[in-house]
Recover the amino acids of this structure.
């Protein structure tokens, strides 16, 4: 059974189709045949703009944990032989400072899963709402937006390669930032170092989805990198830089 045939979801798919077509018509005079691809970029930007408050709360949660990290280290040193008391004191510290232990850990990409699923579906269905899916005729370069990497052929594969390069650079900077900003208690964690490679998994996923979804992924990962840098500068400020220097000093 096709889940996108379920009436409420079919209505969402139809709405997404109309929105992409509308955005495409707006930019077509400027970008011509790349209008649908640019519309996907604009759709991604709209979704990420809506999620800015969520991203801001995640950055604030990061800063909260970083702010109390020196006191947490002191507790760990003082009560290292008494795990139960350490756990109680740790919870008291988080509670007294109004800091969440897990706030900010939910990946932003996970929140976008419904939209990404709709973009994926838009370029898989030959009909939407009982009418032909005109988006399937749209291209970026010579590559249909509904094609995957394995269907692109030459030289269309270069479009995917360009997007993968963007995503790879973003993933590298994201991993570098995650390791640099790791708290002392996390800095040598094997789990953290393993998870720091997670951004590269997006590239693996992108290799198996239509070009339109790859465009979405490339845009949202680039947005995340820039957005986090700007939000950290805004919410952490000079005090955040000072604490960060203390925490990362030998």
């Amino acid at each position: 059974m096709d889940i996108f045939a379920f009436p409420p979801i079919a209505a969402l798919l139809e709405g997404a189709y109309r929105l992409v077509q509308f955005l495409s018509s707006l930019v077509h005079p400027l970008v011509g045949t790349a209008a649908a691809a640019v519309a996907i970029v604009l759709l991604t930007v709209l979704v990420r703009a809506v999620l800015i408050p969520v991203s801001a709360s995640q950055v604030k949660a990061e800063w909260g944990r970083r702010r109390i990290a020196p006191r947490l280290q002191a507790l760990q040193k003082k009560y290292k032989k008494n795990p139960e008391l350490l756990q109680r004191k740790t919870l008291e510290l988080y509670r007294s400072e109004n800091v969440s232990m897990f706030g900010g850990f939910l990946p932003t990409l996970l929140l976008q899963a419904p939209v990404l699923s709709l973009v994926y579906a838009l370029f898989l269905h030959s009909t939407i709402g009982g009418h032909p899916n005109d988006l399937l005729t749209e291209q970026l370069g010579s590559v249909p937006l509904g094609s995957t990497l394995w269907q692109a052929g030459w030289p269309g594969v270069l479009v995917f390669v360009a997007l993968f390069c963007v995503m790879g650079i973003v993933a590298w900077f994201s991993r570098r930032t995650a390791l640099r900003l790791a708290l002392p208690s996390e800095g040598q964690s094997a789990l953290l170092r393993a998870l720091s490679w997670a951004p590269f998994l997006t590239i693996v996923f992108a290799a198996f989805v239509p070009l339109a979804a790859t465009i979405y992924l490339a845009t949202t990962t680039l947005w995340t990198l820039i957005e986090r840098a700007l939000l950290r500068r805004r919410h952490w400020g000079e005090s955040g830089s000072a604490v960060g220097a203390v925490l990362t000093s030998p």
The chain has one domain: 3-248. The longest strand covers residues 127-128.
